[in-house]
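Tutorial handout. Part one gives the primary structure; part two gives the three-dimensional structure as tokens.
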Amino acid sequence: MSTGTRALKVAGVATGVALGAVGAAIGVERAVVRSLRHRPDPDAGRLGPLVFDEARRLPSHDGGSIYTVSRGSGPTFVFSHGVTIDSRVWVKQFAALPDAGVRVVAFDHRGHGESVLGESGHSIENLASDVQTVLEGLDLTDVVLVGHSMGGVATLAFALHHADVARERVRGLVLLSTFARTPLAAARPLRGAAERIAGWVDVAALMRRPELGTALARVGFGREPVASQVELTRQMFAACSTETVQDAIVPLMGLDLIDQLARIDRPTLVIGGTADVLAPPAESRRLARHIRGARLALIERAGHHIMLERAEELHELLLAFARELGADDDRSRAGRSAAGE
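Part two.
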């Protein structure tokens, strides 16, 4: 069998699998929606627009722009979101963490939310460069950089490709529900087929159908999904342009940073959910195993969107990590200095 024939066969199988998955989703969408509607929803009416003190737009290195928002004062957490969503996913962190005496900063990745895609498009290198743009453009130092899913890949790539900037401006890394290698990385024919499928299927349009979109968004949650959290995720996905949905995913398909992880020299906390099917706990364990000194925290029954599902547990982990890194000591010293002590 020729290489071309094998590739076509793989593409056909992959297309069949994809269409079968869509068909299955259509078949169960009503059941998923009914199940969610019958569950208690403590967040109903509470996941509104992101509340922030300041918004900035920073020029990216290739003619685009990166939109940032911030709230609070004190030691700084910088939040980097996943693919096809935007900074609204950090709504609970923006609501709660400033009351704990910290500053929260979030940004929309290129082509997502309010940010504008630059001339060089989507790539792992551009994800890293955009993190650098945020840290330098806002002149942030001693931050805890929190990356979720694709945002975790951006965090890893930044720490690897801009190590000097990371040492100068980042106190620690939090890798949330993320990965350093995808199963397609070593399967070039299958990856090519998956890239073609990404160009054929308008997933954003599927997410704009309320019931089907709800069923698809539900995949990102663990054992105890909440309707308002699933709906926020669906709305973010539906608001993402078709071009971004198709193009931003492609660089992630061939991702393999495993052999480089030993070079990361920032203190690192890896957090995952035991019920995450998009970035399974095995990926979190792999990260913790390959990054020197990294600590691992797995949250039982949590899925991919821990920042929504298990916000209080996440906040405890983040604040404890910041304390371990000495962020509270810096705040105390700054307060004493301002008081003239």
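Part three, for discussion. The two ends are 79 Å apart (CA to CA). The chain has 14 helices and eight strands.
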